[in-house]
Structures are given as structure tokens and as C-alpha cells.
Amino acid sequence: MYLESLYAYLDPGAGSLIIQGLIAAAITVPFLLRSKITEALRRIRRRD
Amino acid sequence: MADATIEPGSYRDPSGAVYRRDGVLLRQVNQVFADEWEALRASGLLDRLTRDRLLVTHAEAPLEMRLSDDAIAVIRPEIVPVISYPYEWCFSQLRDAALLTLRIQSLALDAGMTLKDASAYNVQFLEGRPILIDTLSFERQVPDAPWVAYRQFCEQFLAPLALMAKRDVRLGALMRSDLDGVPLDLAAKLLPGRTRLDPGLAAHIHLHARSQRRHADAGATATGPGPSRRAPRVSSTGRRALIDNLERTIRALEWAPRGTEWADYTERTNYTDAGRSAKERIVVEMLAQAGGTWVWDLGANTGDFSRLAAALDRRVVAPDADPAAVERHYRRVRGAGETRILPLVMDLMNPSPASGWGVQERASIFERTNADVLLALALIHHLAIARNVPLERVSALFASVAPMAIVEWVPKDDSQVQRLLASRRDIFPDYTLDGFRAAFGRHYEIVREAPVDATTRSLFLLRRQP
């Protein structure tokens, strides 16, 4: 995917896109883990 | 058909334009946006957002009402009676607008769409709550594409909120000097060093600013036509994680409104219980006599009298210069579910000017004022004594804004005025009751003059001269 192929009437900024990719990569696993734990706790509470 | 007038702030997005025709506010959808518009309508997102009052409703309008030939549809958006700008919002208003934007982006992702911009100016306050007003802010989510509005969100919401919470709440005024938001390199410089230890602020502001600096010449290094640099892939989970992380970062930002002169002003007035009751009774009577729908309560502080007007079913705009007082007022309004009052941060000595492209993109506060009645209670002495504004000028400004006014006269022997004069020379020989009557008599007729029991003050109901 190239910067030019992103349809944006505003300039997303190359540096902003790059750091967004890095941040997203870094927080995806913790996010998934937290989501799974939250979901599990919800199920346990529902069972109670 | 009458000529259309394009809204001055509607020119950046090629998807469409907002304009008025025959006094009706309309939004045109352009041919270039046709596929996205169809996808948006088919996604069910519009229905969901309007049902939850996250987006203004709209009605279809005849294509004959279009602005130009490249229109594929015309819609009539729900009217927002008072337009306000982010630099007129207190901390919690901007925070609520940021959380609204993230909530909408989350729902958009659920529907296979995404916000293609995250402008704070696309959010307005309607019936006490923030609401998105730009129906064309969406496009289809491209698989693995990053969020193109990420930078704009950080500059228009996160950076000013972080500065207000971590450095000084008055830095929210930076939004007034740069309509695109607070540049992240500036925010990074102004924020305390300890914010580098906050994971959210470190990532979304400090590292973000550094990345911008490092890749600032990414386009300039391209040689010849064609793509110059690959954009990073962001998975659907990564996009959700990003929105979740931004929301957590925003929610963690807090600011307690205290320590300013005005936030506690109501508790420190010199009114006795009897005097205050008398004042409230007269204000209610005068509001009823003045009629109208819209009351602008100038110097509203935490909104005691705004609530009296709202109780009479008036719609109230409540500006005050002190961000702490407005913060407290907004929290009261929000906590009570009050839909008729809009608190705003505005200094009458330096009201929001027109700004942006052609000095028209954003209208001045007075171009947006729809007041039927002005309330100016315990305000005159601050303007005339503390800020040296001649009474005649105060009268002229009030008369230019609203046809009716309720003004409290605070005499020189009042302890609040004496406090203002304690540290300066009294250069105000005309600041007398007769001087007040003469100055306001140039622009108004006095409908009613009522001394307030148990005080030396008086309330005036004024009608603008024809």
C-alpha cells in the first residue's frame, strides 16, 4: 500500500502514518489479551 | 431559484459542500463521493449514529436544490442553533467531543467504514451533548489501511487536552491561533517532561512528533512520478487497539476546576440570602416580561441565573471568561441532563474573532449570536472599573447584540466595586447611577428599574431603541 493510494483530502502525514503503524503493532497483543480477559470475566459474572 | 450562499467554512472536503438556498441549510453530495455515499447509506451506520444522537439527522432534499451540476444528492441537515468552536469549550466539553469522535470511529469500523477526518469543528453541542454535524465524514475502510485522520485527531483533540490537563488549562486557547489544532512538536515542547512516562502521551504526542520531524521530507525525496513510500499496514485489530488506546489516554486526562478567582465567585458574593432571593425574583419577572427564546447570560459564572432562564423554558448560551467557572457550569449542566444551556469560554474583552481563510472560515462570536435577551448580572463593574470600558461603550455593544437586556447596576459604594478600587485610583467620575442611565439611555429605553432589596444595587430591563 502506498501513501498516494490512501484517499485523503487532508494530509495524513508520512510520519503520522508510520508511527501509527508502530503503535498499533505494539498495542495489538495487549489489547487482545485485555479483551479476552474482559470477555472471560463477563461470562463468569453472567454465570454467577 | 434564489442564489445559493456557500458556508465559508465548507471548502476543504471535495466530497460536498454546505450552503444556504432560500434560507434553508443544505449539503450537497458530489459525484466524486457517489460510491462512498452509497456504501455509507447501505452500511446502516447513518441510521445507527442518528438513532443514538451521535450524528445530526438529515432529510433528503430535491436535487433541484443542488449547488452545482456535479451533485448526486442534496440533503437538509438538522439545524444546530448555536455554532461554537473548540477554543470556546471548557476542558470537559473538548474531552466529551474527543470521546464522541472515537465512539463514532469505533462504530464506523463495525460497519466497514471509517472517519476520513477528525476535525473538532465537525462536533457541535446540541441539547447539552456533543454531536457530529458532518454527514460526509465517512468513507469505506480499506483493508489494512491506517486511520488517515489519526494525526488530525491528535492535533485537534489529544494535544490541547493534554496541555490543558498537564500544563495549564488556558492553553486551550492555542486552538484559536491555529485552526488545524496544536502542532504536535509544539505540544511535545510545552508538556511537562513527566508526560514522557505516560504511555499514551509518550506514544501519541512525543513519539508522534518525533516521527513527524524525522519523516517530514518523505514526499520531497521522491524522484519522478509514482509512489515514494509505503504506508504501514494496520490490521483491523490494530485499528481497534489504536482507538481503544486513544480513548484510554483521553479518559486518563483529568482537570479539577479550582484555584481561579471566578470559579468560586458565587460563594464569595456580598449578597445576603434576602438580597439574593430578591434579585432572583426580579430577574425571573424581567425575563418573563422580556420574552424571546434565546438568552445570552454574559459572565454567567457557574450558571445560577442561566438555570433560572432555562426554568422559564428559554434556551441559554452562558459565556464566561474563566475556564474553571465554565468547567463547573458544564459539569452541572451535564450532570443534571440539562438540554437548554450551553456554557462557553469567552472573554467579553476579547471575544472570538472571525478567522481562517479570507477571515471568514470561522465566524466571530457576534456573527453567531442569536440572543433575544442579554443578561448582564454583576458584570458592569468588572467591565467599567476593572477593565476601563466606558459605560456608553458597554451599552453600545449590548445593543448591537440583542434587542432586550437585563442589566444589574452595581454602585461605587458596593463592597465588590470597592474591592476593585482598593489598589487603583478612582478615575471613574461618570460611574454613577445617573451616568449609567445616561449611557444606556443612548441605545435603550428603560422599561423597568427595580432596586434589589437588602442591597444598594438595581436591576434594569432595557429595550433597544428602534
Could you say which overall geometry of chain A the principal axes of the C-alpha atoms support? Answer: elongated
Tally of alpha and pi helices of chain A: 1
Secondary-structure element order of chain A, N to C = H
Low-confidence stretches of chain B: 220-227
For the sheet with most strands of chain A, the description reads: none
Tally the helices of chain B: what do you get? Answer: 15
Structural class of chain A: mainly alpha
Question: How would you describe what is shown here?
Answer:
The complex is a heterodimer of chains A (48) and B (466). Chain A has a domain at 21-48. Helix content of chain A is 71%, strand content 0%. Chain A is built from 1 helix and no strands. By secondary structure, chain B is of the alpha/beta class. Helices cover 37% and strands 18% of the residues of chain B. In chain B, helix 11 (323-336) links the parallel strand 11 and strand 12. The interface between A and B is large, with 31 and 47 residues.
What is shown here, in short?
The complex is a heterodimer of chains A (48) and B (466). Chain A has 48 residues and is an all-alpha fold. In chain A, 71% of the residues lie in helices and 0% in strands.
Search tags:
heterodimer; A: about 50 residues; mainly alpha; 1 helix; about 0% strand; elongated; B: about 475 residues; alpha/beta; seven-stranded mixed beta sheet; five-stranded antiparallel beta sheet; about 35% helix; globular
Secondary structure elements and pairings:
The complex is a heterodimer of chains A (48) and B (466).
Chain A: H1 14-47
Chain B: E1 4-6, E2 16-21, E3 24-30, H1 34-43, H2 45-51, E4 58-61, E5 71-77, H3 91-110, E6 113-115, E7 123-126, E8 129-132, E9 138-140, H4 150-166, H5 174-177, H6 184-190, H7 199-214, H8 236-252, H9 273-290, E10 294-298, H10 304-311, E11 315-320, H11 323-336, E12 341-345, E13 373-376, H12 380-386, H13 391-401, E14 404-409, H14 415-421, H15 433-441, E15 444-451, E16 458-464
Helix pairs in contact in B: 3-4, 3-8, 4-6, 6-7, 7-8, 12-14, 13-15
